[in-house]
Amino acid sequence: MMEQPDPEAIAETGAAIAVDQLTMKYGSNLIQENLTFQVQKGDVFVIMGGSGCGKSTLLKHMIGLYQPAAGTISYEGKDYFSATDAQQLEMRKRWGVTYQSGALFSAMTLAENVGLPLSQYTRMKSSEIDDLVRYKLALVGLSGYESYYPSEISGGMAKRAGLARAMALDPDVLFFDEPSAGLDPLSAKRLDDLILQLSHSLGVTIVIVTHELESIFAIGSNGVFLDAQTKTQLDTGAPSYMLNHSSQPLVRDFLSRGQGHQPISGEVGQ
Amino acid sequence: MASPGFKITHNVSPEHLSACLCGCWDRHQTLPDVEQLFTGSDSTEIQSIEILAEPSFQWDSLFSAWLLKLQRHCDRQNIQLMLSSLPDDALSLHQLATAVPPAAVTKKSPYLISAIFQKVIKGLYDWLENFVLFLGDIALGIVRVLRFRSDARLGDFFQFLHQAGPAALPIVTLLSFLVGMILAYLGTVQLRQFGAEVYVADLVGVGMVREMGALMTAIIMAGRTGAAYAAQLGTMQVNEEVDALTTLGIKTVDYLVLPRMLALIVAMPLLTLYSDILGMLGGGAVALSMDITFTQYVHQLAGAFSLSDVLTGLFKSLVFAILISFAGCQAGLACGRSSAAVGKATTTAVVTAIVYLVVADAGLNILYFQLGI
Predict the structure, then answer these.
(1) How many angstroms separate the Cα of B356 from the Cα of each of B215, B222, B348?
(2) How many CB atoms lie within 10 A of CB B312?
(3) What is the domain partition of chain B in residue ranges?
(4) Out of A70, B20, B44, B96, which could bridge A23 as a Cys pair, Cβ 3.0 to 4.6 Å?
(5) Which pLDDT score, from 0 to 100, does residue B327 have?
(6) Where are the beta strands (DSSP E) in B241-300?
């Protein structure tokens, strides 16, 4: 049995996010249990694992969309799910979330999409909001597309516009659900660079769900590996360290794309 | 917090400007306009501007936005912008933001009168073209059915028949009964003035059989089944299932459209008959409450309409069935590739179907009248 960490201790270590003994269920269907890990400030934290092991579900718990069946998720020492509605809103304003396909509001232009959180939660003048929106869109390489509607741009552009919206409030934590899925290698590389740059320049903590090995090694400074069979985390740590030093053969196998560590029968995520 | 400020110095030459930023440049402050940097100097002469930062300088993304605006301004005026003395983080973000040049916006204003006119003409033309093309596809499909070379499947047909027939009975029951009552009330109020309340049976009978039975059933089915057809086919289009069928060499019209169409063609006349009877029952319920006896009502009803009246109603329902399934399937197959498009296709299906229905009903009534049926 794992020991119950003291919440005070978590606050002192300065972890941006602390997940403790988390159990996730859909109805009576167990997804994952006993997840315990911490995301430090400025980390690029990768949630890894095979298809269908509950990576996206974990992300949805971390952004407060789903209620955990057991366990806690704390932000800077404060448990999200036992907080009041007003406190939860304050915490949520410090996060930015990008969804798999962008999740842009289809009835609004890109500028209106990115400007929505700004006009909702800040008292900036509309000219300042316009400037900031133009800048955020330029950051993701969409300068000049302010008046386009989501239906008029490509999937990769929609993804980047979703990132611009997530960054609108200068969040402390950015969550990404499969950011490079469906992007060509160059766009994926550019997005990885952007994520790294943001984490370096702004000190943003980044939590990212992905199974793209190149991204995992290029940007991941820390991570957790979920397994669909045992329904719990197999290992946690920096991906590049886990590649050669993980005590779990499955993790080494996954990170090396099955090169020599384990026979093919140990397929991931079945 | 110190408010944002800057000092301008012409330290090298009149065409070179140095601006030293100090204070707090963030979203809690109001940043100075970009143009303010250039006030006080002859802007036509300036060729380069250097941005420096004092130790007290603080910034967030609003400053980055301001910097981008300055960059665009300088690009327009052909002024060289030098930023190398800014904090590294601000600099790298600025490089990221300017890595991709702004795309040329080519969107036209959609509000010109001529543009609207063109759109209407093009819309009508497209509608006519698609209508004729789809009609041709269906005709070819029917020919294939008659030559026993069709990809249509009988199993699908029975499934759609169940959806379009028995599954629609509860709602048809309720609405037809109420429409019968409405007709009866309408008739009673008018006929009472002549003391001829008993003729309410004639009104309900002829009204249901010739008109309301077919029309009400059609409107229910347009909202229920026509919309469902559009949503089903639209979702298949979004999931690329239609493409998969085509690449398997299966004709979409045969496989998807004809079974649905046939199911509705079989179900609608039967539902209309059922609706006629329910409407008469509804009218009867009102009549009984108005001092008309049951036998009187039935006797009056029996003499009210003939078999040809029933047949005109059934023929209408046949035409309506074709139109509803046509509109539903066409909208579904023409659906775009996004989830929003499915909603649009469904709306189009129902609206088009109802327009077709009313136009066809008017046309058929004129035809019947001219032919004296």
Answers:
(1) 12, 10, 12
(2) 21
(3) 5-97, 151-371
(4) A70
(5) 95
(6) none
Tell me the nearest-neighbour CA distance from A70 into chain B, angstroms: 35
Contacts of residue B269, defined as CB under 8 A and 6 or more positions apart, other chains included, come to B314, B317, B318, B321
Please tell me the number of Cα atoms within 13 Å of A189 on its side-chain side: 3
pLDDT of residue B10: 64
In this prediction, residue B109 carries a pLDDT of: 62
Is the pLDDT at A11 greater than 50? The verdict is: no
Q: Is A97 helix (H, G, I), strand (E, B) or coil?
A: strand
Q: Does the beta carbon of A12 lie under 8 angstroms from any beta carbon of chain B?
A: no
Per-residue model confidence as pLDDT tens digits over A51-92: 888 888 899 899 888 889 889 999 888 888 888 888 888 888
Q: Lay out the sheet containing A222-227: strands in order across.
A: A95-98, A173-177, A205-209, A44-49, A222-227, A232-236
pLDDT at A233: 86
Please report, for residues A54, A263, B354, B369, the alpha-carbon distance to residue A229 in angstroms, rounded to integers and kept in the order given.
Answer: 11, 17, 54, 74
Contact in structure between A152 and A73 (CB atoms under 8 Å) = no
- Please give the pLDDT value at position B13: 73
Pinpoint the alpha helices (H) of chain A. 7-13, 55-62, 85-93, 110-121, 126-139, 155-166, 185-202, 213-219, 239-245, 249-255
Asked whether the predicted pLDDT for residue A261 surpasses 70, the reply is no
Run of H or E including A37: strand A29-40
Contacts of A106 in chain B (CB under 8 A): 338, 340
Structure tokens, B281? 């029952």
pLDDT at B308: 92
Highest CATH level, class, for B5-97: alpha beta
Rounded-to-integer distance, Cα B112 and Cα A162, Å: 32
ipTM score for this prediction:
0.71
> How distant is the Cα of B56 from the closest Cα of chain A, in angstroms?
18
Q: Do A138 and B98 touch (CB under 8 A)?
A: yes
